[in-house]
Amino acid sequence: MSSLQQIIKPLEGFQYSVNIAYDIYDDKKIKSYIPSSSSLQIIEELLHSTESKSTDRARILTGSYGKGKSHLILYTLALLAGRDASLFSMAVKKAQEINPNLAQNIEAYLKSNKKLLPVIVNANSMDIKSTLLQSLSLALGQAGLDDIMPTTFFDVAVDKINIWKKDFQETYHLFERKVGETGATFIRQLKDYNQSYYDLFIKVYPSLTSGSEFNPLAGADVISVYESVIEAIKSKGYNGIFVVYDEFGKFLEGSVEKYSAMDIKIIQDFAEKCNRSGANQLHIMLISHKGIDNYIGRLSKIKVDAWKAVSKRFKAITIENSEAELFDIVFTVLARDERLYHNFRIDHSKEFDWLWELVQKDHAFSGVIQYGNLAEKCYPLHPYTLLILPKVSELVAQNERTIFTFLSSTERYTVPYFLRMENSDFPLIEPDYIYDYFESLFKGEPYGSNIKKQWQIATSALSKLREQDNPLAEKIVKTITLIYCISDFEVLPPSWDIICDIYATHYTWAEIESAKQVLKNCHLLIE
User: CB-hemisphere CA count at 13 Å for 250?
Assistant: First the structure.
């Protein structure tokens, strides 16, 4: 008989959180993305913004942890950069099912040879201007465009020579001797964008300034630099630039008070430039867990007004995967050998029929019945585990712990770990396993929060049960804790009937009743 590890093989690529800056050229990460219908809508909108007449190119994408914001944008950036069409087969296939026009648009874009240069901005200690300029410089290097030098760089070099000539005559004459040219001749070559003269200027600059390196970005105007780069990369086949400011929420959390009016204006002017960029495309996407207005409540009225003016320049879009979409993603990630799984289903038809009956009788699953036999599609997850997983992830997920890491990471209390360790006849991941996986996040929740309170109650209850030697009683405590953490009693009430439904597959009624009595005797269960 085949082992469960041979039958079910979760798709790789979800083990680690996506870092757009690091993964931008990682084909494996790009290809592993599973688009939902809501993410396809965002892709469609961004494709439309690449049309030359678009005046809608500044956006802020919001959504809580675990929604897949970074992975979506990584995927979309790769698409807009004109990467290999095979990387986007999943999106085309999904779009053909729900939005055939989008499928055609994706294929048409990839065949058009259009491409945008991705520039990834991450929050750091520098001011906005330096961050935007350094990110552009890094992006050019990553794309193999080191030879692209904004005309502004040449202008800054010319300005520097003129300053020496006017205010530092000795430095100016030393410069002429080192380059073997008159200053006027050298300036003419720089104005003609002669790269060899610019390289020579950079080479001699340290010997004229006590060893400092020439930094043309220091005095450059951000928008002018981006405009000149867009013009320069056209000869390399690019149609423009797409800037993504990842973790913009972290920037606001740590710096919203300290940044000056000039910094705020740079963001506002940059957004306006994007929306008016026409054929020389410039786009910007801010990624945040919340909208800008959620970060500025404690600022002075002047700064609040300034940030609100910025907010108006960005179109807000939110990634909100429905429960059905999340289930669909889970089904896709839990890839399996169809032949082996077919035989497994036949061998365990009685267990699968029991689980399917549970799904059909509980209205909590009514929104996903159209997906077919949920019990078979989500196995080895118990249907109630599938129901609970996205709700708990929504509450506490962080980059290192999400639905996807649970499904495919190899660490403890994940699906691959379960497949590796379990050798029973019909292994089933019940809801208490979710508790074990997310417990470290429950523990780290703020004091006074409902989740922290429920974790504290569960921890106390579990300590009382250790002497009882009843593993099922412990499982029930963990499951009830999850139900109270979710606190959506209309959908998932803390009823004993649901507890029985969850554990009746592996335990007899007598064993369940025995666990119930243990909980009552320990004063942990009140009906």
Answer: 9
- Take residue 21 and report the two structure tokens written for it: 């800056």
The structure's pTM equals 0.72
- Amino acid (one-letter) located at 305: D
Supply the pLDDT for residue 371.
Answer: 58
The sheet carrying 240-246 orders its strands as: 116-122, 240-246, 281-288, 58-62, 315-318
The residue among 197, 117, 214, 119 whose CA lies nearest residue 160 is 214
Q: Are 175 and 161 in contact (CB under 8 A)?
A: yes
- What pLDDT does residue 277 have? 93
Buried b or exposed e, range 392-402, using 16+ CB within 10 angstroms = bbbbbbeeebb
Per-residue model confidence (pLDDT) at position 13: 57
The C-alpha atoms of residue 37 and residue 72 are separated, in whole angstroms, by 12
Percent composition of the chain: helix, strand, coil (DSSP 3-state, to 5): 65, 5, 30
Looking at residue 16, what is its pLDDT? 52
Give the burial class of 489: count Cβ atoms within 10 A of its Cβ; 0-12 exposed, 13-18 middle, 19 or more buried. exposed
E-state strands within 50-141 = 58-62, 116-122
Residue 171, burial from CB neighbour count under 10 angstroms (0-12, 13-18, 19+): middle
The answer to whether the beta carbons of residues 245 and 128 sit under 8 Å apart is no
Low-confidence ranges of the chain (pLDDT < 50): 15
Distances from the Cα of 163 to the Cα of 19, 24, 156, 212, 214, angstroms:
43, 41, 11, 17, 14
pLDDT of residue 34: 82
Chain centroid offset of residue 246 CA: 9
